Amino acid sequence: MIKHKNIFQKITIALLFSVSIFAQKQARIVEDFNKKWNFKLGDYPEAVNANYNVSDWRVLQLPHDWSIEGAFDKDAKTKQAQGFLPAGKGWYRKVFTIPANWKNKTVSIEFDGVFKNSEVFINGKSLGIRPNGYISFGYDLTQYLNFGKSNTIAVKVDNDAQPNSRWYTGSGIYRNVRLVASEKLHVGKWGTFVTTPEVSAEKSKIHLEVTIDNDNTSAKEFKLVTSVVNSENKEVANYTSTEKIGAKTSEKTVHDLEVKQLKLWSTENPYLYKVITKLYEKSKLVDNYETPLGFRYFNFDSEKGFSLNGVPTKIYGVCLHHDNGALGAVENIHAVRRKLTLMKEMGANAIRMSHNPHSLEMMQLCDEMGFIVQDEAFDVWKKKKVTNDYHKDWDAWHKQDLEDFIKRDRNHPSVMMWSIGNEIREQFDSTGISITRELAKIVKSLDTTRPVTSALTENVIEKNFIYQSGALDLLGFNYKHEDYKDFPTKFKGQKILASESVSALETRGHYDFPDGIKAWPTKHGAAFDGNADWTVSAYDQVKSYWGATHEENWKTIKSQDFMAGTFIWTGFDYIGEPDPYPFPARSSYFGIVDLAGLPKDVYYMYQSEWSNKTVLHILPHWNWKKDQEVEVWAYYNNADEVELFLNGKSLGKKAKQNDDLHISWRVKFEPGTLKAVSRKNGKVVLEKEIRTAGEASKLDLQADKTTIKNDTYDLVYVTVSMTDKDGNLVPNAMDLINFEVTGGGKLVGVDNGYQANLDSFKANSCKLFSGKCIAIIQSNGKKEKIQLKASTAGLQTSVIEIKVQ
């Protein structure tokens, strides 16, 4: 039953998701449920019982990934694609007390993600299973709870059947968990849907659908109050209606509002509003619920590409997997913010959530930081890619998984397209037609405001049954950039995006001098002349056989207006899929930024093309053999030319010609200073120097922030660099660095970005690679200044201090 209330008043709104997390004075109580869990690897079905002895179990705080704690093993069942790390089974258990005064409330638990095959038990009762490791889900606990007494929750996680993925998944309750208590009359789970059917800077209409659940045994009359507030918490629109609802039922109510003189959400200014929904019985507040909102309008065009708020906008996108480097699959908003900040500073304005639903924190930050999101549901349908992947659960679960995915994310203003699949095998047979139509229909039943797309690999129409379904609003194509020029004729009238591109290979800080573009390997399974140390040159000249170099791809996308944009594979290196090498390589080479979050050189090519920052970047380092011929590259922008100097002597001026994205010189090495000067109209724009480093003298420690909160979640990333006495990076340093953390923090991860490093991410030491590594420190809850000591043989210990709020 839908009751419609038409009224337009002052208001503006955007799309987002949220539940208010306030103190108990709020009607809805949302509690962090991450702390003080017991955990043990193995299978312990008796752990569901209240009297089970867990004295030998670990005590830990969620989110938790047990795979990242394990050792790399060439014979691991997860295989190369998942980084040779362990999987298996594990159990989590927690004893907790529910307040007696919650007896008349509805109490539920929300899991943002458990990988995978979870089963949740409360006081011995199974609440259900959820095979999909990326889907958020929850259970109503009310009827099984002992109010005012002890309760036992147990979660079985079964990630034993391997291989089940083409990338690193992690294992365990790796995202956040919450306990939610509300009155019997409340907004349902993911119970709001806000859209803006008409949007302009002058005025916008807001359409809000609210699903109300009444768990009472009697009918209820209530007031439903909608308030729209801006980012300064000033109300810009409101509406109130009186409603009735039957006992033990769920009903939907609609409020329509209008906002005038609003601020639009954009990638440059991601201005957010929120919708506050309140329910009152008589004068008593019985529920409050917040929904994010951003006012924006966008369009995909078959000839002109993409526009946002009427402004032609190229999609400068990157694909990201869900892992957070040395933290594994553990989700932490501070890790995600660092990742997105690096992408934003590079100039990226879009993220493709590859190839599965990502976290609430990721969605929230994309809204707040201004990223266009391609939200993706599946990597496989009924046809498998690996032995134990999602195809086994497809028939029983795909409908509910897709529906829950859409409901959770549809209020985010950043989401501008729904992807129903990535490189799906059903492209190549007629079942692709029926399944594509079914999935598109499910999406449209829940949201008609965004196009449905799928990442396709086949651009021969006769072979592509997903395309033949006619159900896609937007065609996403992976790779084959050389074919794009034919698409306006081949796919006449279709809207087109490069949903995945590049797959170039680089290792940060390693340089083999260029001798032309090459593919490693030239085809699947072919031998190739790789490096003995499992590195790939950081010059942008090595690619996978199916892909392109960064420059090849970007030149193509840049020159074709009909292409809405591109999503680079990938923004960051990720654990698993270490093409082109076998073990001991255990993480990918595709990233623009390495696994430790340290940019590779090609980062600055994108920054020079995608951002409004003035860029001058030269490579490689300047520590070579006497008279060795070195190729020097420069990425630059906002200038006419660059002049290169070696020890004060000019080596000539160069400028990009035609569609060049870099310039280069061949230089005979002599120690000293390599200096580049960019000029525009004869005036200096930027200068950049690289000096030959002398002997290692000290460890330089640089933290990404000076203060953290004592909330047991906040992170600080410390970059460790080996320098000479003058502060120059020693580019080939590989020394072992030992770490000691005291005070209000603990060491939770180390990494150096080297793809074949088999040392544990959880060690108290890390070898430098190309002169650098990182240490990740997390708050331990103490209100004490954090001190990190970094030491190595032969040098004085370096110390950095972090304040704790």
TrEMBL record:
Residues 193-296 form the Glycoside hydrolase family 2 immunoglobulin-like beta-sandwich domain. Residues 699-800 form the Glycoside hydrolase family domain. Residues 628-685 form the DUF4982 domain. Keywords: Glycosidase, Hydrolase. It comes from the Bacteria. Belongs to the glycosyl hydrolase 2 family. This is Sugar-binding domain-containing protein. It comes from Flavobacterium soyae.
